[in-house]
Fold this sequence. Notes:
Elements: H1 4-8, E1 13-14, H2 19-31, E2 44-49, E3 62-64, H3 68-73, H4 75-89, E4 96-101, E5 104-108, H5 117-124, H6 143-148, E6 151-153, E7 155-156, H7 167-171, E8 176-177, H8 180-191, E9 199-200, E10 202-204, H9 218-223, H10 243-253, E11 260-261
Parallel strand pairs: 3-4, 6-10, 9-11
Antiparallel strand pairs: 1-2, 2-5, 4-5, 7-8
Amino acid sequence: MPTILETSKADMLVYGMGEQPLREIIRLLEKGVPFNSITTVNQTAVLLNKDEKIPKNSNWEDVEIASHESCLKDKKKYASNFKVIEQESNKLAARRIFQKVGEKVLMINPPYPTMTEAEIDASFDLPYTRLPHPKYDKRGPIPAFEMIKFSINIHRGCFGGCSFCTISAHQGKFIASRSQESILKEVDTVANMPDFKGYLSDIGGPSANMYKMKGKIQSICDKCVAPSCISPVICSNLDTSHKPLTELYQAVDRHPKVKKSFIGSRYSS
């Protein structure tokens, strides 16, 4: 199949965690920028006509991968494309990717940098209802919702690099962790829900135990393109201290309405 932009006929794709690109798109629209001129927002993809001028961005490097048509004929070119995409998703500063698709050109802009603590806190501190969409009200219990109803997401990203998993492709390899204050505020919200019985089903993330973990020397991480920080060996530059995580668990357990809390996310490191 070609890019989903071709098959769906959508005007734009926002990929990954969408808060930052959506906010920028809305800002530009409110400023009066025509939608078809919004082509240089991070973490978006658009289809250009072959004769259309490529939007310039001096902060980005570009890379072209094999066309869709050539991938249909050659599995090795398809595999080569996958390698490029995998490496770019594991970089702090990715390149912009181009691919010819029929008479058009797919342009995938690089993702935003890893969220800072303040940025991810601002996202999670929004006034969510924590409820399914009202359209499901008459359909009975939703098993997936019941499973995560009393769970807390403490970070994003995963440096496991498992070959079967796409977390790094849509959340990145580098960990964005919420502050303990933001997490405890959500714990308090959950603890005061009418049907809360005192049990938190999960305090975790894409991988449960990567909270606050990052490289000891950032400049080394800046150059790294490895898909995993823990395989085949744990990177010597990775700070694997679990102290911030255990302190968070202890703070959660001190909440007067929390009887027990569990870790339901998978462990990697």
